[in-house]
Amino acid sequence: MAQVKMTFCGGAQSVTGANYLIETETGQKILIDCGLAQGSRFAEDLNYAPFSYAPAEIDTIIITHAHADHFGRLPKLYRDGFRGRVLTSNGTRDVMEQAFPDNWQHIAEEAKFSGHPPLYTEADATGVMELVEGLDYYQTVDLGQGNSMSLLNAGHILGSSLVHLEINGKVLGFSGDLGNSGSLLMPEKDFIKDADYITVESAYGGRIHEDKTEREAKLLEALMHVVAHKGALMLPVFAVERAQEILFVINKLVENKIIPVLPVFFDSPLAIEMTRVYRKHQSEFNQAARDLIASGDDIFNFPGLRLTESVMESKKINDTPGPKIILAGSGMSTGGRILHHERRYLPGPDNAIVFVGYQVDGSLGRKILEGQRHVRIYNESVAVGCVIKAIGGFSGHADQPQLVDWVERANESGKLKKVFLVQGEDESAIALSEAIKAKISVDTVIPKMGESFEL
Predict the structure, then answer these.
(1) Which part of the chain is the Beta-Casp domain (predicted)?
(2) In the list 21, 113, 124, 313, which could disulfide-bond 7, CB 3.0-4.6 Å?
(3) How far apart are CA 78 and CA 229, in angstroms?
(4) What is the pLDDT of residues 10-53, one digit of tens each?
(5) 164 φ, ψ to 5°?
(6) Contact 248, 237 (CB under 8 A)
């Protein structure tokens, strides 16, 4: 059987920057994801570094989902010569289309601040979007030379996909980011059951999530603190999925009169736009969410909600006395409007900040969460005196038991030869490796950046 070579060009021993190259003996080259490195002090250097392969030689790239650490370097790939096919789900295509203008704005601002050229141009983002083909789940696509692929539901965010790749008679499975069971909006994740090799994320490979039934109670606890003290509740949210989930929960709390009607500022133009994309794809929600919509509940709207799309509207949030809730990006406090609110409200004990998503090592969100009493925002030292909470039950990532179960199910055919553990810090990947080997007899590998394997 002909050999297949897989190289880990990103996402190895790192949570972000997913980028995996598959090469066949006949010269076909396929990429899985092309993400930005995020969070660490080396991220900018990694993103600007040349690709370790010739972009012009890539035939196809498959994007698992529309988070920047999985698709954010696509325009740079295009800028450097890529003109092949970009395959992804219909939902991911629509999310990417809205995300690129926002990403470009941040790229341009960062370049201006640091004094180097932008990572890519707006024309590069437009150009690569013209190459994107949206696919239905379970649709088989011919890649040429007898190879094929299909996408399955990953249950992580709208459009998130597992990749089932048949290359030279071998089945390669890629998890992308695996969703957490019990999502408020997404259906349960699928399984790849006939794989020879699988590449699995390990962001929470060493963790067991808290009980999902506690997520609303914990949010309510923080919310009642700011109601009692007339403070501000800050919610750093990712524009895709987490923002919509939080709206969903607040809608429930308001409409069931569990909390009073109070100002809820949705202060993220991108998240507002993404919510419109979610409305377009509500047929992809889980049954419970679809039933609510069918009953007439507008799950993303409720009394008190204010959409602050313009900068002027955002600045006026300061004029509204507490209690109030502010949803803004970015989810890890690495940029976006949340920084302005954090600079203003972090010092006050009447206020609270609640993290509802993963905080990568080195990010401002991680520093706040780990208890730093002073942080730097816009080159100012800002005291941290507010209530700080993290709610793991909102996590969009599978935890260790779910990841182990997913790998076990991948071995149902009995032909699973190797499991590659990626997209996690070393400690998480090692813990997941040990947990997998305690359950099934399979070779687990934690690849290094740039390491290649013959499959």
Answers:
(1) 243-368
(2) 21
(3) 51
(4) 999 988 899 999 999 999 999 999 999 886 666 778 899 999 99
(5) -110, 110
(6) no
Residue 382: what pLDDT? 98
Distances (CA, A) of 447 to 103, 196, 387: 29, 17, 39
Cα–Cα distance between 73 and 286 in angstroms, integer? Answer: 31
pLDDT tops 60 at residue 1 = no
Please say whether the beta carbons of 40 and 59 come within 8 A.
no
To which residue do tokens 């401002």 refer? 364
Extended beta strands in 270-322, E state: 305-307
Q: What SS3 class is residue 273? A: helix
Instruction: Report the C-alpha gap between 219 and 286 in whole angstroms.
Output: 22
What's the CA angle centered on 102, arms 98 and 106, to 5 degrees? 160
Q: Which residues pair with 201 in a beta bridge?
A: 422
* C-alpha to C-alpha distance for 140 and 168, rounded to whole angstroms: 16
Cross-strand bridge partners of residue 454:
5
Report pLDDT digits (tens) over 208-244: 988 878 889 999 999 999 999 999 999 999 999 999 9
Residue 30's closest CA among 89, 86, 75, 76?
86
What confidence tens digit (pLDDT) does each residue in 241-283 have?
Answer: 999 999 999 999 999 999 999 999 999 999 999 999 999 999 9
Question: Strand 19-24's sheet: what is its strand order?
Answer: 132-135, 85-89, 60-62, 29-32, 19-24, 4-10, 452-454
Rounded CA gap, 152 and 155, in Å? 9
CA distance 373 to 360: 19
Q: How many CB atoms lie within 10 A of CB 324?
A: 22
Strand, coil or helix: 355: strand
Which domains, from first to last, does the chain contain? 4-207+396-454 (3.60.15.10), 212-394 (3.40.50.10890)
Half-sphere exposure of 152 (CA within 13 A, CB side): 16
Residue 339: CB partners within 8 Å, gap ≥ 6?
Answer: 333, 364, 377, 378
Structure-token pair, residue 438: 């305690």
**Residue 330: cis peptide before it, omega within 30 degrees of 0:** yes
